[in-house]
Fold this protein.
Amino acid sequence: MRGIIGICGTPGTGKKTVAPKVATLLGFPGAVSINSLAAKGAHDVDVKQLRAKLLKSRPSRFVLFGHLLPDVLRKRETAIVAVLRCDPSVLWKRLGARGYPRAKVTANVEAELIGLLLYECVLQYGSELVREYDTTSTSPEDVAKAIARDANAALKRRPRVATRRPPAWIDWTLDYGSSSKLRSLLGTSDPPAWT
Protein backbone atom coordinates (compact mmCIF):
# COMPACT_ATOMS: atom_id res chain seq x y z
CA MET A 1 0.00 0.00 0.00
CA ARG A 2 2.49 2.67 1.24
CA GLY A 3 0.98 5.58 -0.67
CA ILE A 4 0.12 7.98 2.13
CA ILE A 5 2.48 10.81 3.00
CA GLY A 6 2.13 11.62 6.68
CA ILE A 7 2.91 15.04 8.12
CA CYS A 8 3.05 15.38 11.87
CA GLY A 9 4.24 17.97 14.36
CA THR A 10 3.44 19.96 17.44
CA PRO A 11 0.70 22.58 16.93
CA GLY A 12 2.24 25.69 15.36
CA THR A 13 4.98 23.95 13.38
CA GLY A 14 3.25 24.50 10.02
CA LYS A 15 1.36 21.31 9.16
CA LYS A 16 -1.78 23.04 7.86
CA THR A 17 0.28 25.36 5.63
CA VAL A 18 2.81 22.82 4.34
CA ALA A 19 0.56 19.77 3.71
CA PRO A 20 -1.49 21.21 0.79
CA LYS A 21 1.72 22.45 -0.84
CA VAL A 22 3.22 18.94 -0.60
CA ALA A 23 0.07 17.43 -2.13
CA THR A 24 0.23 19.88 -5.04
CA LEU A 25 3.94 19.21 -5.65
CA LEU A 26 3.30 15.46 -5.67
CA GLY A 27 0.23 15.74 -7.91
CA PHE A 28 -1.94 14.14 -5.23
CA PRO A 29 -5.67 14.92 -5.04
CA GLY A 30 -5.22 16.78 -1.78
CA ALA A 31 -4.27 16.93 1.85
CA VAL A 32 -6.53 15.59 4.59
CA SER A 33 -6.51 17.02 8.11
CA ILE A 34 -6.96 14.43 10.83
CA ASN A 35 -8.47 17.13 13.06
CA SER A 36 -11.16 17.86 10.48
CA LEU A 37 -12.23 14.21 10.66
CA ALA A 38 -12.45 14.19 14.46
CA ALA A 39 -15.70 15.17 16.15
CA LYS A 40 -15.88 18.92 16.72
CA GLY A 41 -15.24 19.88 20.33
CA ALA A 42 -14.47 16.34 21.44
CA HIS A 43 -11.84 16.12 24.16
CA ASP A 44 -11.44 12.36 23.86
CA VAL A 45 -11.03 11.08 20.33
CA ASP A 46 -12.12 7.56 19.42
CA VAL A 47 -9.07 6.58 17.38
CA LYS A 48 -10.69 3.46 15.88
CA GLN A 49 -13.68 5.46 14.69
CA LEU A 50 -11.40 8.21 13.38
CA ARG A 51 -9.30 5.65 11.49
CA ALA A 52 -12.40 4.05 9.93
CA LYS A 53 -13.61 7.48 8.83
CA LEU A 54 -10.20 8.25 7.36
CA LEU A 55 -9.92 5.08 5.30
CA LYS A 56 -13.46 5.29 3.96
CA SER A 57 -13.43 6.31 0.28
CA ARG A 58 -9.98 7.91 0.30
CA PRO A 59 -7.69 7.74 -2.74
CA SER A 60 -4.74 5.37 -2.49
CA ARG A 61 -2.32 8.30 -2.46
CA PHE A 62 -2.83 11.46 -0.45
CA VAL A 63 -1.22 13.63 2.22
CA LEU A 64 -2.50 13.14 5.76
CA PHE A 65 -1.58 15.63 8.46
CA GLY A 66 -2.13 16.20 12.15
CA HIS A 67 -0.61 15.61 15.54
CA LEU A 68 -2.70 12.42 15.95
CA LEU A 69 -0.96 10.81 12.95
CA PRO A 70 0.84 8.07 14.96
CA ASP A 71 -2.49 7.04 16.48
CA VAL A 72 -4.32 6.76 13.16
CA LEU A 73 -1.92 5.81 10.35
CA ARG A 74 -0.17 2.44 10.21
CA LYS A 75 3.39 1.79 9.05
CA ARG A 76 2.32 -0.39 6.12
CA GLU A 77 0.21 2.48 4.74
CA THR A 78 2.80 5.20 4.61
CA ALA A 79 5.69 5.93 2.30
CA ILE A 80 7.22 8.57 4.55
CA VAL A 81 6.37 10.53 7.69
CA ALA A 82 7.52 14.14 7.86
CA VAL A 83 7.81 15.53 11.38
CA LEU A 84 7.81 19.31 11.38
CA ARG A 85 9.93 20.87 14.13
CA CYS A 86 10.29 24.44 15.39
CA ASP A 87 12.61 26.08 17.90
CA PRO A 88 10.60 26.16 21.16
CA SER A 89 11.04 29.91 21.71
CA VAL A 90 9.72 30.63 18.20
CA LEU A 91 6.90 28.12 18.75
CA TRP A 92 6.00 29.96 21.98
CA LYS A 93 5.52 33.15 19.97
CA ARG A 94 3.52 31.42 17.23
CA LEU A 95 1.12 29.80 19.68
CA GLY A 96 0.82 32.99 21.73
CA ALA A 97 -0.12 34.89 18.56
CA ARG A 98 -2.94 32.37 18.04
CA GLY A 99 -4.33 33.29 21.44
CA TYR A 100 -3.68 29.91 23.05
CA PRO A 101 -4.00 29.91 26.86
CA ARG A 102 -0.66 29.92 28.72
CA ALA A 103 -1.08 26.31 29.90
CA LYS A 104 -1.67 25.08 26.33
CA VAL A 105 1.33 27.06 25.03
CA THR A 106 3.56 25.64 27.78
CA ALA A 107 2.37 22.06 27.19
CA ASN A 108 3.02 22.29 23.44
CA VAL A 109 6.40 24.00 23.90
CA GLU A 110 7.42 21.27 26.36
CA ALA A 111 6.33 18.59 23.87
CA GLU A 112 8.39 20.23 21.13
CA LEU A 113 11.40 20.74 23.40
CA ILE A 114 11.65 17.04 24.19
CA GLY A 115 10.62 15.85 20.71
CA LEU A 116 7.50 14.02 21.89
CA LEU A 117 5.88 13.63 18.45
CA LEU A 118 9.19 12.66 16.86
CA TYR A 119 9.50 9.94 19.50
CA GLU A 120 5.93 8.72 18.89
CA CYS A 121 6.48 8.67 15.11
CA VAL A 122 9.75 6.74 15.36
CA LEU A 123 8.06 4.20 17.66
CA GLN A 124 5.12 3.79 15.26
CA TYR A 125 6.91 3.92 11.89
CA GLY A 126 10.58 3.20 12.55
CA SER A 127 13.46 5.57 11.90
CA GLU A 128 13.70 4.48 8.24
CA LEU A 129 10.36 6.14 7.39
CA VAL A 130 10.62 9.26 9.57
CA ARG A 131 12.26 12.52 8.50
CA GLU A 132 12.44 15.84 10.34
CA TYR A 133 12.07 19.28 8.80
CA ASP A 134 12.96 22.43 10.74
CA THR A 135 10.30 25.09 10.12
CA THR A 136 11.80 27.68 12.47
CA SER A 137 13.06 29.96 9.72
CA THR A 138 12.54 27.95 6.54
CA SER A 139 9.70 29.06 4.28
CA PRO A 140 6.68 26.73 3.96
CA GLU A 141 7.44 26.44 0.22
CA ASP A 142 10.99 25.23 0.87
CA VAL A 143 9.82 22.80 3.55
CA ALA A 144 7.17 21.45 1.15
CA LYS A 145 9.76 21.02 -1.61
CA ALA A 146 12.07 19.08 0.72
CA ILE A 147 9.24 16.80 1.86
CA ALA A 148 8.05 16.25 -1.74
CA ARG A 149 11.60 15.37 -2.82
CA ASP A 150 11.94 12.80 -0.02
CA ALA A 151 8.41 11.49 -0.63
CA ASN A 152 9.09 10.99 -4.34
CA ALA A 153 12.22 9.02 -3.49
CA ALA A 154 10.28 6.91 -0.96
CA LEU A 155 7.43 6.23 -3.40
CA LYS A 156 9.88 5.00 -6.06
CA ARG A 157 11.57 2.50 -3.71
CA ARG A 158 10.79 -1.13 -4.13
CA PRO A 159 8.47 -2.11 -1.25
CA ARG A 160 10.81 -4.54 0.49
CA VAL A 161 14.04 -2.61 0.03
CA ALA A 162 14.80 -0.49 3.07
CA THR A 163 16.91 2.58 2.54
CA ARG A 164 18.33 3.34 5.95
CA ARG A 165 20.29 6.38 6.82
CA PRO A 166 21.48 7.17 10.30
CA PRO A 167 19.16 9.87 11.64
CA ALA A 168 20.58 13.08 13.00
CA TRP A 169 17.56 14.04 15.06
CA ILE A 170 16.99 17.63 16.12
CA ASP A 171 17.68 18.04 19.84
CA TRP A 172 16.36 21.38 21.12
CA THR A 173 17.49 20.57 24.65
CA LEU A 174 21.06 21.30 23.60
CA ASP A 175 20.01 24.91 22.87
CA TYR A 176 18.39 25.24 26.28
CA GLY A 177 21.24 23.86 28.35
CA SER A 178 21.19 26.44 31.11
CA SER A 179 18.54 26.24 33.78
CA SER A 180 17.81 29.97 33.42
CA LYS A 181 17.03 29.57 29.70
CA LEU A 182 14.83 26.57 30.41
CA ARG A 183 12.99 28.33 33.25
CA SER A 184 12.54 31.37 31.02
CA LEU A 185 11.07 29.21 28.28
CA LEU A 186 8.69 27.22 30.45
CA GLY A 187 8.08 29.38 33.48
CA THR A 188 6.84 32.75 32.24
CA SER A 189 3.70 33.97 30.56
CA ASP A 190 5.67 36.10 28.10
CA PRO A 191 7.74 34.75 25.21
CA PRO A 192 11.44 34.42 26.04
CA ALA A 193 13.35 37.67 25.50
CA TRP A 194 16.63 36.06 24.44
CA THR A 195 15.55 34.99 20.96
In short: The chain has a mean pLDDT of 84. The first helix runs from residue 15 to 26. Strands lie at 4-9, 31-33, 62-65, 78-85, 130-134. The longest strand covers residues 78-85.
